[in-house]
Hints:
The protein folds into 5 domains: 8-204, 2-Layer Sandwich (Alpha-Beta Plaits), CATH 3.30.70.270; 208-249 and 262-428, 2-Layer Sandwich (Nucleotidyltransferase, domain 5); 438-548, Orthogonal Bundle (Endonuclease III, domain 1), CATH 1.10.340.70; 576-742, 2-Layer Sandwich (Nucleotidyltransferase, domain 5), CATH 3.30.420.10; 754-833, SH3 type barrels (Roll). The protein contains 31 helices and 31 strands. A 5-stranded mixed sheet has the order 1-6-5-2-3, sandwiched between helices. It has a 5-stranded mixed sheet with strand order 15-14-13-16-17. Belongs to the beta type-B retroviral polymerase family. HERV class-II K(HML-2) pol subfamily.
Amino acid sequence: MHISDTLMPKVKEELTRMEQQGVISKVDQPTEWCAPMVVVPKNTGRVRICTDLTELNKSVLREKHPLPSVENTLGQLAGAKVFSKLDANAGFWQIPLSKDSSLLTTFITPFGRYCYNRLCFGISSAPEHFQKRMSRILEGLEGVLCQMDDVLIWGTTQEEHDERLRRALSRLQEAGVTLNDKCEFSKSKIKFLGQIIEASGVSPDPEKVKAITGMQEPTNVSEVRRFLGMANHLGKFLPHLAGKTRPLRDLLRKSNMWNWGSQQQKAFESIRADLTTPPGLALYNPNAETLVSADSSSYGMGAVLLQKQENGGWTPVAYASRALSETEQRYAQIEKEALALTWACERFQEFLIGKCFHMETDHKPLVPLLGSKRLDELPPRIQRLRMRLMRFSFTISHVAGKNIATADVLSRAPVGGNDSDLLEEDINLYVDAVISSLPATESRLQQIKTHQENDVMVQQLKKCCVEGWPDKFSADRSLQPYLQYSGDLSVHSGLLLYGSRIVIPASLKKDILSKLHEGHLGITKCRARAKQSVWWPGLSKELTEMIEKCDVCACERTNLKETLIPTEFPTRPWSTVGADLFQFGSQHYLIVVDYHSRYFEVAKLTSTTSEGVIEHFKSVFARHGIPDEVRMDNGPQFSSEHFRKFVRCWNFKHVTSSPHFPQSNGEAERAVRTVKNLLKKSGDPYLALMAYRSAPLANGYSPAELLMGRRIRTTVPMISSQLNPEGADMKRLREIEQKYRQKLQQDYNSRHRAHDLSPLQPGDHVWVKGLQERGTVVSAANTPRSYVIDTPKGVLRRNRYHLSPTPVAPETPALSPPEDTRGSMAQEEHELEQETSVSERRFPVRARAPPAYLKDYVCSNNRN
């Protein structure tokens, strides 16, 4: 929940108060769990701090602490005349947590992380742990019964009662348990666990059967049918039920006229009495399976608490019903159903606190809202109701409407007035706080409200929220996209919300999309911004499409590294070589490296023209022979007509890497790094080169051995026999190289979390990084992961890394990207050793400017 500026000081004040009381403390260390905080405003002007521990509860092991049978306990009250009831003050907070348990309750706030030092509401195991502790404190005391934080004390005389009370108070004081002002002392009649206890005996509390005893007789056939449904549902084990209901069933015959006579009245009153006295009404058993069934009509709520008996049947323990207030009648139906279940649990709380029970509803979308969804995903009213249910431990499921006949009947015939003032006020305070916390100014909210009022679709949705949703077969076609979200839509203060997010009308969608993409954040962050505040069906898809069409984002977008493609190990020395130019200091060099042996030749260049480079190539080839294939980048020295002629005359294959992607000539790139390190660290570069060429590689052979078939003599002493020519074991060498390449590939892919980019097809639209232009794929190129691209600046060849798939350019182009923006040159290697690119320039960059005689002309450069 976003916290408004007006609530922030109150939240800080409450956190400080709780910290000073020792209830919570700050957390600085890393913790395994961290829950969200929820702020609930009070009508006193203060706030209540709640914690959503839903995820933690999934891993909490529950304690199963048995409770004494109420029936057996009440049997001990024979002769009792004086009664007292004690109520523990903030009971849970009186139980300290261990350090490890405390850290599990860590929650996050705008002021840092805190954890509870004492047992808090929301932990699923808290009630039974509290019950176990209270039972142990009062264990062995006569005339004392403990049910959670309620303690009943009785005596046959005033003196006996007082002595038992003193012992109980002494035990509680020793344990540090404090009591609140709800305690009752020395009463001749007292209410406990739904029973009225007095000297004359135990009788059911009239309040728990008032919903039945106060029910008025039916006035039409539909009401008779519902009443009979309830009677059959609850009275399966009542004697002679079929005979008693016959006068009522006669009214259901189509051939009979409606006539409510004395026989029907007598049958109605008899059934009503049976349902409110044993065996139709059971005594509460704390160890029996318990079920809460609740339902809401358009004007009332009904609920029944049932328990499973030894014969396998379910028998009611208590009933409740009440009318809805005018405000509550305007709730969405799903909110009314959630209200009914919450109200029922709070009405029956003396039976439910500390017990795991089950709830059932005939409103299927409500099950995940009260069961599995996160708190921040819920509509505001249901958020607050869910928080009120946090102190209960329950499961929830959907049942057909015919199976909750009792709750349905009670909701349609609410007894008495509306006692909802406190609950309604609490919900309204929370909803107002949620609305005020939305990241929008008052004027902006008013603007959205105005647009919602003028939007036909939004008005139709508001109507469905209040009056109910049609089924998917009869719903209008325009409503179909919203049906699956019906449980999350609600109306608050005239504003249509999805959870706690504003539903944006069609007229504002374009503006909101633009606002979400301010700063040109990526898809994930823009979706996260939307998730905080706004919603409409298909928002994520529209947001994704808009960002993919954004030129500014396209030119800055960096593809992730692709998986490594190992170069095939050449079968013989000097068959495949790589070449590159590099600069060290003020001097330029040519390097030629053998892919088989890693043996390289380095030549200092006096000229970086094609002619100068070719002369050194001839010198290297004269020593080692002409290779089958030479790999190099797209430097101008290697793409000139003079160099192409040299290739034809000397008869070798010339392979170039993709433009702006020198990493694909990885062996040469690595050799450049090696040479630069040698030149930096060594005073004598020739000794350094000799040391490199004679040092064994990972395969056990030195570059000189693999190229020349012999070891070379160095400054390190060695016997002459070691210098005799000895060829490498090629089979063993290939196996070693294969394993080496596989391991290097695995390590690279794992370290860089590399994955293959999706291949492109002819006709695909792409954004060309570096060129800052859109283009169309013509075909795949003759090198791995490269494509021929048609762009406004001509037909180019580019590696897949530089190409971002994009939809067709929008009719109204986005802002042009800055002219000096460059796409990142992250690696997408095709070689074994392409881990990083060369940081220094390999050759000087010539400053380009048009000749003076062209100053009066508009010129364009179409070269690639």
